[in-house]
Amino acid sequence: MNIRKYKIAIPSMLTSISILAGIMAIFICIDGTRENYSLACWLIIMAAVIDGLDGKVARLTRTSSEFGIQFDSIADVITFGAAATAVLFRSIFLDRVGSNPIFYVFPVIFLICGAVRLARFNITATTGKKTGFTGLPIPTAAGALMSLLLIFTWMDNAGNGAWLAAWLAHKGIAVPDDLKLRITIGYLVVVSFLMVSLVKYPTSFGFFFNDIRGHKIRSFINALLVVILFIYPSVTFFLVSVFYIAYGFATSTQDPVQDNGETEKLTIDVQ
């Protein structure tokens, strides 16, 4: 029995699951049942988590390949580009395009910036250990927007034990749809710009776990995040994504990127 043949299939299977999650999210949008939009958001967030694992699995099993790079990028376009755009459009923009066609533009901006990000990534990518990213990765951008949509749903569901939603309902405070729209557009524009920017981001694994030994405070924060994740998952994903996005922007501001006309070539940990 050639064990390596099976090892090679493991990263691709993870990538295939990511594609499946994206396709299912698109199917949910086609169905048009608003109650299921949260499920579509969770499918894309789940795919983003898997995307962070497939490359590491490929490196651990020593099955990194050029095929894996291309397959992973195709999966990203489907799940974090097309599927995330479909969820955004159906949940936020669809009801407004009749009155103003400009609302077609915003989700398309996200999709195009994501495609540009992936194209730039493909021409600089090599197999090996990942050291970081130039520009916000599209899985993170899509996950951040999906977590924002989940926050809106969470705040609207006062009967589901959400203390903030219950408190707002008790005070007679509601987040109007127009405010949700403006927040979504603002956040969308920011993450779209960051995807095609030269802002440097660490890997998600390195961001949370590198040099954690001996750092009791960081270990405590990570443990606390895990606990909160089980209690308020949507809130946790939203806050973590905002912090990660802000961290990259803040550190790049302190240490400006010297643009010499080329994007820095990074080694990446992919299939």
From TrEMBL:
Membrane topology listed for this record: Multi-pass membrane protein
Gene Ontology cellular-component terms listed: endomembrane system; membrane
A biological-process GO annotation: phospholipid biosynthetic process
The protein's Enzyme Commission number: 2.7.8.8
Subcellular location: Endomembrane system
MF terms (GO), sorted A to Z: CDP-diacylglycerol-serine O-phosphatidyltransferase activity
Keywords, comma-separated and alphabetical: Lipid biosynthesis, Lipid metabolism, Membrane, Phospholipid biosynthesis, Phospholipid metabolism, Transferase, Transmembrane, Transmembrane helix
Top-level taxonomic group: Bacteria
Membrane spanning stretches: 12-30, 99-119, 131-155, 185-209, 221-247
Gene3D superfamilies attached to this UniProt entry: 1.20.120.1760
Pfam hit, one: CDP-OH_P_transf
EC top class named in words: transferase
Reaction(s) catalysed by this chain's protein: a CDP-1,2-diacyl-sn-glycerol + L-serine = a 1,2-diacyl-sn-glycero-3-phospho-L-serine + CMP + H(+)
Family listed: Belongs to the CDP-alcohol phosphatidyltransferase class-I family.
PANTHER family: CDP-DIACYLGLYCEROL--GLYCEROL-3-PHOSPHATE 3-PHOSPHATIDYLTRANSFERASE-RELATED (PTHR14269), CDP-DIACYLGLYCEROL--SERINE O-PHOSPHATIDYLTRANSFERASE (PTHR14269:SF61)
Protein's UniProt name: CDP-diacylglycerol--serine O-phosphatidyltransferase
Organism name: Candidatus Raymondbacteria bacterium RIFOXYD12_FULL_49_13
Lineage: Bacteria, Raymondiibacteriota
